């Protein structure tokens, strides 16, 4: 019985070392199948795998963030300051009284 | 460590082991790197749209790094400005466009470190991502996209991100930066190693420890 437990612990330790490679898709298909069999048979390792996978998913989900609107506006203004106005901005600036969406919609109404 | 209990599906994770829809695979990471390299090549030939896109990305990276890793939204403006100018100068004379992305993160990291060295009142704790969520009084925030429109899923995701923010605060900075670069920004292990000037094995070790820490902190919710 002790021998069985010791073997099980050794298997779990081996799995832990390879689990990250498994989660990152870095292992061969044969190795993945072996790990999956262990995860199905060992509740503790299966549980750890589920929680690790979730932690990674939460991080990746949180990483997909946009800049706040005001920060984005400032960032765009810095780019315009550095590069000068784009062709479209220059055309708009060359038409007095036609600046921005309001002017465009006014022109359409006429 | 107990066995998983039955319960509601977690919207942040897949139900099927080994099949993670949000997982960034090697080819995806290569694609992102190739996209950066393409922008650099085009910008170097005078393509204005490419240069604008590159400069915007540089500022986005600078902002996210300042807020998430350093916890100082106040520094973000200076760091963004530096990333902008350096990218503008560097993009025109880079020999290896594939090296641009690690260069950008290294530049931003150094700019953040310089800002921190200038501080005499450096706080012991770092800003929580939760503190940076949009608020009516206009506090600087990272607008994190909720992947689903199901209200329950949105609530669960917000709660998880709050826990993540707390967990990231508790991580030592060397581990936090690896989580940020590898998991949140999608850099490859090799790129992270280049950014930080450490071995790939060291990146993996830090990442594994950080993941074990994070899964404990995020709990079973």
The computed structural class of chain B is: mainly alpha
Characterize the largest beta sheet of chain B: strand count, sense, and whether it forms a barrel: none
Distance between the termini of chain B: 15 Å
Average predicted local confidence, pLDDT of chain A: 79
Helix and strand element order of chain A? HHHEHHH
The class by helix and strand makeup of chain A works out as mainly alpha
- The rounded Rg of chain B comes to 18 Å
Helical content band of chain A: over 70%
Proportion in β-strands of chain B: under 5%
Identify the most extensive interface between protein chains.
A-B, 43 and 63 residues
Helix content of chain B: 55-70%
Count of the domains of chain B:
2
Report the total helices of chain B: 8
Number of helices of chain A: 6
Query: What is the chain-wise order of helices and strands of chain B?
Result: HHHHEHHHH
Query: What is the percentage of strand-forming residues of chain A?
Result: under 5%
Describe the structure concisely.
The complex is a heterodimer of chains A (110) and B (221). Chain A has 110 residues and is mostly helical.
Question: Could you explain how this protein is built, in words?
Answer:
The complex is a heterodimer of chains A (110) and B (221). By secondary structure, chain A is an all-alpha fold. Chain A folds into two domains: 62 residues, no CATH class; 41 residues, no CATH class. Chain A is built from six helices and one strand; from the N terminus they run H-H-H-E-H-H-H. The radius of gyration of chain A is 29 Å and the shape is rod-shaped. By secondary structure, chain B is mainly α. Chain B has two domains: 96 residues, Orthogonal Bundle (Rna Polymerase Sigma Factor, Chain: A), CATH 1.10.1740; 73 residues, Arc Repressor Mutant, subunit A (Orthogonal Bundle). Chain B has eight helices and one strand. Chains A and B meet through helix 1, helix 2, helix 3, strand 1 and helix 4 of A and helix 2, helix 3, strand 1, helix 5 and helix 6 of B.
């Amino acid at each position: 019985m002790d021998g069985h437990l010791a073997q099980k612990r050794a298997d779990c330790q081996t799995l832990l070392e390879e689990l990250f490679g498994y989660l990152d898709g870095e292992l061969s298909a044969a190795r993945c199948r072996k790990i999956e069999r262990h995860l199905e048979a060992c509740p503790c390792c299966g549980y750890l795998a589920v929680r690790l996978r979730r932690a990674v998913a939460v991080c990746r989900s949180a990483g997909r963030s946009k800049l706040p609107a005001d920060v984005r506006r400032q960032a765009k203004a810095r780019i315009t300051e550095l590069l000068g106005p784009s062709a479209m901005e220059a055309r708009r600036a060359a038409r007095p009284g036609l600046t921005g969406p309001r002017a465009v919609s006014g022109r359409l109404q006429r | 460590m107990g066995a998983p209990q039955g319960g509601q599906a977690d919207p942040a994770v897949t139900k099927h082991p080994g099949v993670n829809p949000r997982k960034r695979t090697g080819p995806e990471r290569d694609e992102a790197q190739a996209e950066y390299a393409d922008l650099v090549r085009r910008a170097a030939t005078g393509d204005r749209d490419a240069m604008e896109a590159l400069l915007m990305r540089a500022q986005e990276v600078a902002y996210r790094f300042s807020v998430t890793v350093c916890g100082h939204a106040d520094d973000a403006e200076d760091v963004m400005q530096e990333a902008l100018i350096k990218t503008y100068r560097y993009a025109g004379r880079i020999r290896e466009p594939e090296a641009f992305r690690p260069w950008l993160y290294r530049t931003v990291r150094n700019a953040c470190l310089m800002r921190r060295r200038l501080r005499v009142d450096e706080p012991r704790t770092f800003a929580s991502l939760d503190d940076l969520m949009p608020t009516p009084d206009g506090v600087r925030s990272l607008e994190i996209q909720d992947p689903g429109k199901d209200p329950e899923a949105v609530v669960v995701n917000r709660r998880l991100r709050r826990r993540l923010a707390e967990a990231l605060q508790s991580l030592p900075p060397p581990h936090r930066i690896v989580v940020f670069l590898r998991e949140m920004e999608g850099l490859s292990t090799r790129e992270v190693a280049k950014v930080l000037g450490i071995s790939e094995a060291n990146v993996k070790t830090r990442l594994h420890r950080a993941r074990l820490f994070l899964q404990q902190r995020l709990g079973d919710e």
